[in-house]
# Entry
Amino acid sequence: MPHKHILTSLILIVLFAFAGCDKGFEEVNKNPNNPEEVNPELLMVSIIRGTVNQMVNDAFSIGNVVAQQSAEIREPGTDRYQWGSFGVWSNGYNTLRNVQNLYDIGSERNLNNYKGVALVMRALIFSRMTDCYGDLPYTEALKGKQADPVYTPKYDRQQDIYKGLIAELTEANRLLSANGGAIRSDILFNGDVTRWKRFANSLKLRLLLRQSNKVNPAAAMQEMINNTATYPVMMANNDNAALKYVESPNLFPITGQRSGFFFDRRLGKTFADKLNEFNDPRLRVFAQPTAESAGTAQPKWAGVRSGETDANLGSNIDRKVSALGTIYYLGLQVPVRAEGLVMTVSEVKFILAEAALKGWISGDAKALYEDGIKLSVDYYRNVSGTNINASAGYLNQPGVAFNEANGMQVIGTQRWIALFFNDLQAWHEWKRTGIPNLTPSFVNNNNNQIPVRFQYPDEQQVTNRENYAAAVSIQGPDNINTKVWWDKE
Amino acid sequence: MKPRNNYTGNLCCLTLIFLALPFLSFSQIIKGVVADSLGQPLQGATVEIKGTTFRTSTDAAGVYTLTNKNAFTTKDIIVFSFTGYRTMEVPFTGNNNISVQLQSAQNVLSDVIVTALGITREKRALGYAVQEVKGESLTQARETNLVNSLAGRVAGLNVVGGSNSIGGSSRVVIRGETSLAGNNQPLFVVDGIPINNQVSASSQRQNIDYGNGAGEINPDDVEAISVLKGPTAAALYGSRAANGVILITTKTGKGTRGMGVTVNSTTTFETVLRLPDYQNEYGQGRGDVYNIGDGGRSWGPALDGRELAVPVNTEWPPKNGEKIKWAPYPNNVKEFYQAGRTLTNNISLTGSNDKGNYRLSFTNLDQTGLVPNTDQKRNTIALNTGYALTEKLRLNAGINYISTDSKNRPVVSYGNESVVYTWIWEGRQVPTDKMRDYWVKGLEGVQPFTYNYQFNDNPYYTVYENLNGLTKNRWVGNATLTYEFTPDLSLLLRTGLDQSNERRDSRRTPGSNAFPLGMYRLDRIFFQERNADFLLTYDKKLKEDWNFKVSAGGNQMQQREEDLSAIAGQLSIPGIYNLGNSRIPLVNQQFDSKYKINSLYGFGQLTYRNAVFLDVTARNDWSSTLPSANNSYFYPSASLSAVFTDLVKLPANSPLSFGKIRASWARVGNDTRPYRLRNVYSYATPWAGTQTVSEPAAIANADLLPENIDTYEFGTQLNFFARRIGIDVTFYNTRSRNQILNIPIDLTSGYTSRFLNAGEIRSQGIEVMLNLNPIRLNNSFRWDVSVNWSANRAKVISLVDGINTYALPGRYVSVQARVGERMGDMYGRGFQRDPQGNIIHLNGLPQFTEDLIKVGNYNPDWMAGISNAFTYKGVQASALLDWKKGGEIYSYMYVRGNEAGQLKESLGGRNGGYVGVGVMANPDGTFKPNNVNVTAERYWGSGFFNPEQATFDATYIKLREVKIGYTIPNKLLGKLPVRDISIFLVGRNLKLWTKVPHIDPDTSGISGETILPGIEDMTLPTPRSMGLNVNFKF
# Structure
């Protein structure tokens, strides 16, 4: 009967199919979607964009707010110091994973410039994190995939992290060279090795200054300043580490938010009062006239008090205080002129001015200080497309004019202004110098203290509990009032 | 009907074999006819002498001839049985002609049950717990998601309501959670073929629930559902059955004579079961000052009827000066939801003759949701055929085509496209009517009107303009050939297919807060699973009391998945939803995967006097997802049961009428998902044409081992007083080891997790089923009570050395498995408390812990389902209560609703401030009662980071189902062609009793393709459904 043949052949087919029970399985389980190995340049955008976007978002929602350059009118959680851990930590370590890959691929393929870029980004990200949290895993960090893996890295003291980062930046400066290979997909410096070197050394200056209450920076700074050929630093706004955004979805990150989030952060009263006092040309770039005064003969810029009361926030305050500038927001997904600030030449000038003032390096503190102001105003002129200038009148007015006695005060104040929207740098500098003199938010949940630290992420209590506990016992309670090492008297 | 000529030869062969058997002595013969209740002969019915091996079956005329080597005595009992009919026992009284009519099993308590591989077995023979749900209980009071119909009906089966979205998904877990990494859901099998039950929510910016695979199975085509609770069936279905199997048998045409037509029609209307308790005394604003232009909180002035201009808005024209009465609209949310409507119409044709049978069914489901402009249409065509190609070769084939269509499905989690969100941030003074006409005059198609332009879209605009459409076509089919080499030896060959093509269109018109320039996203999802099986069975009677059956088989499973998505983030021309219309570069994603398992398995049964049953199974799998050195794994099982009342002579007056004990043990191996062995880079959004990648945070592991799960269970089933009382108790214990976990590692290592084998979970529990028949009157009145009760405790025995905590998917709360603790524990910050347990305040505000504390557990302490059914002549009435005791739920509605000043609680302290109940610290560290007064706005706004305050005892009782029906006696219908008309008034989810404020605790959050139990995330209201079901036949 024919169906018997059909049956026999069916059985044979089935048995044959099972003959090699795992035949070809490795081919079946080969991921068709993603590469196992990549060229180093494929990591560049992720690393740079991931870091800079986070810096912009943090500047907007934390840095500007705690430094009282802006203040919240709708959800005053940051102003009322209802702080937690924030995203600096998770963004940092997640990006560092790709940085580590960039470094490793650079090492395997002998591409020194990618290694150098990796070290600069590593130092930038680690310094961002340690300035916010203090002690954190550094020497044992990022070893999850190594042959001898570390899954629960111990915390390092901040002084050791700083020592390491400064050494890494020195090494980055050595690696970065004209014959270190091309740097492709470089959205920050367009493959310009010299600009990477300038950034590396400028960042090193920032770190030397930041720890200067604890470690005298004189020798290290002098070595750099006296060998500018070996250690070039930022000299002009062209050298700035500032990310120019392109088209959607690669726009200035704040434009990814609904308008309500942008209009929640208004010009801060502390900042507005100081800029109004100086008649600072940057004010009209930083902020818009109040809704009440816009379009009138006398547009006014006014700020909202940090930690304003609910009653005052309710009283149509949105019409009475300035929104932040139109270079930052024109609507959701609408391109704007603002850049993602990582570090600018004006900060470098203020660092050198302070170093000269304190005698760590030789130099004209006043000239450096005024350069810092002019470069900052120039920068905002270019970015905003307005015609603002740092006039002689501006520079010579009380509160701005430099003399030996008020040197620290005016440098600190101008640095505070120049660091607007630049990561959390204005807050860190306030912590280090106490300039400007800030009064805690009017209504706050932190016993009238301005926070000086972020809490460690909750997950640290879960995934790295013992090292976390050890770190807390050394550094002090894991709260927002424990000072980090360089901030302690 | 007489056998056709071409079969005569085969019959001759059979007869020859028959005659050749030496031990037959033809000393006595019983003859007769087996028919159904209408007198139609049944072919293939089994007739045997109880306790012996003497057995025969009926021919096409229903005629049988039973022979016994010894003379029949009055001790002999003749047993008549036929699949789908109730088994009948007739004592031999000396009459040699015994004809019987068998009752259809659909109308009586069934004694047979469909088990793994579609094998019908007597319940008494099973060594493990199985529970059955009949098809008609799914089609009278119906759920459009089949899974929801199981709630409250099966002991140990936990159905958790999902998002309440139209067409949304449900989570079902049998016997608690044993897996840390898996979804813990059982395997769904339709007619022997595993089907896909993936939750296919979207991973979009805001979650949309596109349903779970098993929810699409059409209840009208379901004959019965068997719930195989333990992993004993895993030897037959593979690893995926480790969490139990839900076995769906579809209807066939078997047993119908000629052509039968059945019509089933249900119309129900859905209303909102529960809405949050909103306050109605204060309008939007803050600090008691009116302000709705900025922010959406309701801390404004009292709604006392004064006149105010709206909207005050600085960012967008028109500056409308229209005045409204500053008064509450207590029903503004209620008015927004509309009555849903569900129409289900099914028509089926059935027929059979001596050679074959068929059933063709068409079902149309047409549903509109509570949320305006949301819908679901589902058409199902099902064809089932069986045909005897020859006397020995039989073909069964079935195909289901399911086409699902939604013009729009709602957003189901917190976010500005969720209407539940909108009604938190739109105040109590907002009139629903004013929102209906949602375009700004003169700016139609460009600017929707709303009360809060910076954050909220008009909810009508959201649901009418920003659509989340779905079209899905699915084919589920199988074909089975069985060949009987000899009466003892048969071969089964089967192939099965589950294939679906899904298209999702997300459209955003310009003008929404989230997409001012519009957006279009297209997702295409292809899924295919193919199974091929062979099974050789040898069934042998050994001696008089012994029966022996052994089977060996193999299975090849192949899965393919292809996902494609493209997003046009902004549109050049509004209203054109085409990827070519993107203003900006498209963001594309593609994921393809393949997966294969080959298996060989065998199982055997040894039966003694049809009262003691020993079953053993063994299976070996080879999985493509494991490294080649470890990709083969073996797992056995054994079960033993004894109907002791058949082995021991009971006293005549014994209340015990039936008693059985059972025990089983099983091990299951398990593999993992594809592509977990090697690290790869994933693509990130390009930068103006510059491509970039990023390494995922999970470390792959090239040395993974298979997982394994061990289970044992004991149980007993006892019936008393002629089945007036029936009780069934099961205890089980499951240990899962070597789980393939994506163990979290500290992010500072550069990675957040790594794959490895680790961990042990022990899950144990008790299931009790109680059936009572308190009243059974001669006038046919009958009252039946059925109660099921179960409790489960799943505990984490170990994780990995050095790791005591494993984080599971969660939101707002952290769901953690901690060594020594229960599965399902939820952690978060809580209140700081003094030694007496009072909440510590500072400056009037409650203080929160720095550590994460346990705030609850989402698994219930126990569950019960209580069903009462009354029948009297043609009248039937029944009610099903579903009771879950204990467990906790976190309510995001409570958190944000009170922060927003919208819910009842937030009225506390509006006038003159709120003094929190608790203590404050003295300078010396002791505590005194808190006496600091803060504004209600500050007090209620401070709870955001404190999950403890928003976690509630989730205990609830739900009136799941009520049915009242009447079946018109056919004699009343006279000569009308219509028969068996039944009409039911039906209701589902009619009433809820719970102490949880504002929400129905029978809900869960959703995140991408993961259901998040224990978390209410602005879930849509539960629909309460009421309607009419009509069923009749031609």
